[in-house]
Structures are given as structure tokens and as C-alpha cells.
Amino acid sequence: MRKLTVTILAATLAAGGCAGANPPLERSDPPMARAARPAASFAEWRSDFRAYALSRGIRPEVFDAAFQGVSENAEVVSLDGRQAEFTKPIWDYLDSAASSARVDGGRAQRARRAATLSAIESRYGVDPDIVLAIWGMETNYGANRGSIRVIESLATLAYEGRRRDWAEEQLLAALRILQAGDVDPAHLRGSWAGAMGHTQFMPTSWLTYAVDFTGDGRRDIWSDDPTDSLASAANYLARSGWTRGQPWGLEVRLPEGFNYGSADQANLRPSAEWRARGVTLRNGQALPDHGPAAILLPAGATGPAFAVYGNFFVIKKYNNATSYALGVGHLGDRIGGGGPIAAPWPRSERELSRTEKIELQKLLIARGFDTGTTDGVIGPNTISAIRAFQAREGLTPDGFATASLLVRLR
Questions:
Q1: Under 8 Å between Cβ of 78 and 307
Q2: Any catalytic annotation for residue 72?
Q3: What is the DSSP letter of 264?
Q4: What stretch of H or E contains 382?
Q5: Which long-range contacts (CB under 8 A, 24 or more apart) does 113-117 make?
Q6: Could you tell me which of 366, 318, 44 has the C-alpha nearest to residue 327?
Q7: Where are the alpha helices (DSSP H) in 125-189?
Q8: What strands, in cross-sheet order, belong to the sheet with 249-253?
Q9: Beta bridge partners of 305
Q10: What is the pTM of this model?
Q11: How far apart are CA 330 and CA 228, in angstroms?
Q12: Would you write out the chain's pLDDT as a tens digit for each of its 410 residues?
């Protein structure tokens, strides 16, 4: 979908890694529950969906104009079916997320658009460096916004059928955007999965969060001017619970004898409690009180550690991948003048392939440790299962999926 994030947590991103694809539905309509009726042809599916769209309030002339010249897109089918067997480790992902070019680009945009960013911050209370980081992560500051007709990409995904209900919901939202007149069919373009504009909104997210910050009467996230897109991203974060002035997270140092089983995103504790347990900033200074925090170990006990606050989880509402939230947070810090992550990464560790992750999940389940699924994604359930296995085996319970752990399970 986006050029930067296609290699890590591939399944999460393939399911919709851009704004609003992972959270619950963001419109007043109930989810679609149309009976799965395999269409013999694209034309048959289109005819069936046209009747449905008209029943949901789309005017016939809007539908027909939107679908003029639309057919099944082979590129979209190929990209949707592509599952990366090998994925990059988190340190390579973050190296790319906060590359010198991306940091320099963000700082240049910060200087160029200082007045606009200040006005957006004043209205929504969101750190402008985080808004810039989202822009940089999503489209490299507008350079890679996507050029596929959104109607065609979503119609293809709906006809293909693997995610029909989701694609038809997004397609109906795209038709509503056209009906509202904020953009015409020729300019309604985006990624292969229907993500649009500088900050890659899905159509349902546009309906709920897009704003007309320029005051020209249109919520225009597609033009070369990114103002409405940046303001819309800030509005998304603000309405998702962003706390003004709170950092997303801080790199920390953990004391000897730290209970790694407590390093869990779900374990939000008062900052004072982490201080009492000996957690300090990386430089040894006291951990400041920015509210409840969780300890995050993205590469296990031998890698960097972070205290993450409520705003980290707000970024995850934009995209539910932990890697993405870390990337946005770290890139935002770098744009704002911060330095690189101080602690070394365990770069000698080999990232498991998707097939190996599935095998790891199956082996954990066979030994009585429930991962919830065997999808090859190391999510919270799998991490908990790994921790339980590590604790039983007398290992450091950091939940990190490594090649050596897989060997031990075998």
C-alpha cells in the first residue's frame, strides 16, 4: 500500500495499514452483511452492487459517472494476493522510517509550512512533528500518493471477493465522497487498496475525519497542497484521544533484575511505579511523569526499551501496527531535533520468515500455549504465548520471537 511499510508485519498492512482501516467502522451506517453471491463476471458484480448502492442513497448519475471505464484491475489483484514470505526486522524498518533523507525532508517541510503547522496545532493540539511524520511515512511528503482510480481499486477488491464486505463498504463511502462534490472521479486516485491523499485516508475515514482547513469549501486531500490532508490527520489523532504536550514515548534503561514479564503494551502503570522499580531514562535521569506508561521491548530484552504513553496508542489507532507507531514516533522526534535511538539493536538476530512464524505458532499451540491463530503475525496473543513458554523453560520472558526460540520449540 505504502512504499515504506510493505515488508514488515505484512499481514497487518495487507489488511489495511492506512488511516482508519484497522479501527472499527467510522460512519453511522451498520456494516454490510450482503449474502456472498459469487459473480460470474465483473459486469454482473457491478450490476448487483449498483442496485445496492442506489438503495443506500447514491444517485444513478453519480454511480454511472464513477464507474465509467472501470474494469477489473490486474495490478490490484496481484498486489492483494502478494504475501511477503520474508520480512524485515524492526531495526531495519526504523532505519528506513527515520532515514537521513526522510528526516531532512521533514525538517524542510517544517520550515516551509511553519505557519500552517502552527495553526493546525493551535486548533487540534497535536504535535506538528507527529503530523509531519505521518505524512513522511505514508507518502514520503506527498511524493507517493498513488495513481490508481479509487473506484477501480475498490471495485476490483470487492469483485475478487476475499474482502468483499470491507471493499464494498469503502466503495460506498468513495461514492458518497463523489456525491458530496469534494472531488471528481478523474482525481479520486490513491493506492492499490484505496488509500487516498497525502496522509492516505481510507474513504470511511475521510467521511468522518477529513476537514476543510483552507476554507475553500472542499475537504481536498488529493491536490498538491497538503494543508487539508495534514489538518485531517491531526483531527483524526485529536478525536482519537491525543493528549496535548504528552510524548508518544521515551527511550528508557531497565534495571538489573527487571521483571520482563511486565513489559507489555497492555500493562499501563503510573510513571511513579516504574520509577520505583528502577526504570530511568536512557541517560540515567529520572523517568518524568507524563501519565501512565507501558514498557515496550520491540526487539526483546537485548534491544532498546521504551516507556510508551497514551499518545503511542492514539497513533496505533491511525495504523494498528506497533512498528508503524514506533516509526511515526521516532521520525517525529528526529524531525524535531532529537537524536537516534541510543541502545544497540540485536542486529545479529535473524528475522523469522512468515512460514517460520506460522510454524512457531503451531508449535506453541501444540504445547498448550494459545496464540489465538496461526497467521504468521506476532501479535499480542502470540507474544503472551511466547512469554509463557519462556517462563516455563527458565528463559527471559520478553516475548521476542527468535530463530533460537523456534529451534527450542522444535
A1: no
A2: no
A3: -
A4: helix 380-393
A5: 113/226, 113/230, 116/227, 116/230, 117/230
A6: 318
A7: 128-139, 150-160, 164-180
A8: 280-281, 249-253, 305-308, 294-296
A9: 252
A10: 0.89
A11: 24
A12: 333 333 333 333 333 347 765 433 333 344 445 555 556 899 999 999 999 999 999 999 999 999 999 999 999 998 887 655 667 899 999 999 999 999 999 999 999 999 999 999 999 999 999 999 999 999 999 999 999 999 999 999 999 888 899 999 999 999 999 999 999 999 999 999 999 999 999 999 999 999 999 999 999 999 999 999 999 999 999 999 999 999 999 999 999 999 999 999 999 999 999 999 999 999 999 999 999 999 999 999 999 999 999 999 999 999 999 999 999 999 999 999 999 999 999 999 988 999 999 999 999 999 999 999 999 989 889 999 999 999 999 999 999 999 999 999 99
β-pair partners for 60: none
Q: Name 44's Cβ contacts closer than 8 Å, sequence gap at least 6.
A: none
Spatial separation of the C-alpha atoms in residues 114 and 270, rounded to whole Å: 35
How many other CB atoms sit within 10 Å of the CB of residue 238?
18
The number of residues making up the chain comes to: 410
Quickly tell me which residue has 495487507 as its cell: 14
Amino acid at 151: I
Cα separations (Å) of 405 from 223, 249, 259?
A: 49, 28, 19
Tell me which of 138, 152, 168, 251 is the catalytic residue.
138
Query: What domains does the chain contain, in order, with CATH numbers?
Result: 10-83+145-239 (1.10.8.350), 354-409 (no CATH)
Calpha distance 50→38 (Å, rounded): 15
Residues forming a β-bridge with 201: 19, 196
Yes or no: say if 178 and 185 are a contact pair by the CB < 8 Å rule.
Answer: yes
